[in-house]
Amino acid sequence: MNNSDNKVLRLNNFEDFGPSRLRLLKHIENNCLEYLINSGYSNVDPPILESADLFLKKSLGSTSSSTYTFTDLENQLVSMRPDFTASVIRLIFDNLKKKNFMSKVCYSGPVFRYEPVTSKSMQIYQVGAEFLGQKGNKSDLELLSNSIKCLDLSGVKNYKIDLGNVGIVRELILKKGFGNSIAELVLNNLGNFNDKDWEKNLIFKAKQLNLIRLNNKENSSLSYEDILKDYEDRLSLNLGMRTQKDIINRFAGKVASQITMEEIKECIDLVKNIMNMTIEEFLDNKNSIKLDSKSCQEFRILLKNVQNILDEKRSLSLNFTLTRNLAYYNGIVFDVKSEEGIILGGGGRYDDLPSRLGYDFDQGCLGFAINLTKTTQVIGY
Amino acid sequence: MPSSGSLAEGAISFMSKKGIIIEKESDRKLVGKIKDFPDIEIFFQRSGDIPLSVDRGMGHFGITGLDRYLENCEGSQNSYVVKDNLKFGDSKLVVAVPDGWIDVTSISDLVEVCYEFKQNNNNLRLATKYPNLVRRKLEEFGVTNVVLVTASGGLEAAPMIGYADIIADITVTGTTMKENNLRPLLDGVLFDSQAAFISSNFIPSKFKKSSYEIIKKINL
Known about the structure:
The complex is a heterodimer of chains A (381) and B (220).
Chain A: H1 19-38, E1 42-43, E2 49-51, H2 52-59, E3 68-71, E4 77-80, H3 85-95, E5 103-112, E6 123-132, H4 137-154, E7 160-165, H5 166-175, H6 180-188, H7 198-208, H8 224-230, H9 232-235, H10 244-256, H11 261-275, H12 279-284, H13 294-309, E8 315-318, E9 332-337, E10 343-349, H14 353-356, E11 365-371, H15 372-379
Parallel strand pairs in A: 1-5, 7-8
Antiparallel strand pairs in A: 2-4, 3-4, 5-6, 6-11, 7-9, 9-10, 10-11
Helix pairs in contact in A: 1-4, 1-15, 4-13, 5-6
Chain B: H1 6-17, E1 22-23, E2 31-34, E3 37-43, H2 50-55, E4 61-65, H3 66-73, E5 79-83, E6 91-98, H4 107-119, E7 124-128, H5 131-140, E8 146-150, H6 158-161, E9 166-171, H7 175-179, E10 182-193, E11 195-200, H8 208-219
Parallel strand pairs in B: 7-8, 7-9
Antiparallel strand pairs in B: 1-2, 2-3, 4-11, 5-11, 6-9, 6-10
């Protein structure tokens, strides 16, 4: 890039790190890595550049549209990693032969996210860890403890942890008899739960998605022949590579899972009740919704254990609206924020991610990362 | 400025309302002038070529569709959007599917159909003139397993010919799509576009006064 004086300018939203900031960053990075290595994590370093497919397959969520992706000199579509998780999982499975293993790895380095309309830095330094091979509370607590320790080592004072659980929210919606489509719609819209038009927008989207039955008749399932007859004109048009059978079967499934307007409002009330629950209400289980399932009980134990680790200056909040990158989180999710509300890191459980990336593995997967770029900014240098 | 089409008429009218009078010797001439601005020349081009012309420094200002600018120049350090809505040239970039896909009414249906294709070892193919814009927008909606087929025109015929399954195209009334048995998804508007005024970041100092006056009038 040249201006009229022929100087080449630094790209917008990419920062130069001077000696004092870099010293601070490296200090935090080294402390965190040393702690993680001593806790049984293996330090790994995947390449910055990977096949774009790796991040497209993983994402289904917010990072995907902000990836630096381009065609390289060998005509391959490649991306600069927007985070470490997918690369680290690929590294683990590419390099290890056994299926049933417990693998704990840690990493550090830059990631790249393209956000032109904000003033956020597009190159972010991270330090983090991935934990494969365990499901359940024990590994959830271990991960949270590791991340808390890393934050303490960074020198950030008075941070807050927002802890949610995507799995519990989904479970509560499904337990009340609402289908997967309704559960996904709600979960995909929890991020703006606190907007004043949240309920109205959710109902609008449910109508758009044909999830709401507009008459209140008992839903008798439509037969294949009924659908073929009712939609004969349209089904006889060019359908491309899809077959009439695929289309009709999927259509029948959609109609069968529709709910009434009263039912969607019931679901919304249930969700509001869950979202507005405080940590104390959840722990005491005195809410009108009975939260007695095994996952709720385990989450209760986890919350108490995390409270025991933190002191009052580092607070823990229950936040069921937290979904982070919903597409692959299926259990605990957490954000760590500074006193000023700046997100310094976070993580959670994403058991399905390895299979989403094409690996035959369903034994649990979770991780966290700390944003060292933001952390050094908050601490000051 | 655009040389033809609705953007051309809208651009001349817009400039006139802002007190910028375009003078051209004849309708066929592709160069013109601005009254009272003797140091400014107007080049009339295909509206699709204008973003790159300005971005590469061959022109200093331009009126073009916002969709065209974002497709080719979003994030560029060489140019920027002065005003992103000149209140004409409205259009929408929409995803449309064959009308026979009665089970597909929304983007989330499309996500599931992508998986259906993948399970059959195929990829859903989408034809568009805006591959960059469409890819970014689709990824925001969680649609990722799609192969984009770039085509310059006649997209509505793509599913019939067979080189794509669905399309993403600019539409104003939706009539052409309907006549080709295509149906926009209920939430399939990826982008709302309209005419935009763009500027180069590198205007030579000898034109600073005129360019300041033009931008001031544009922003009134």
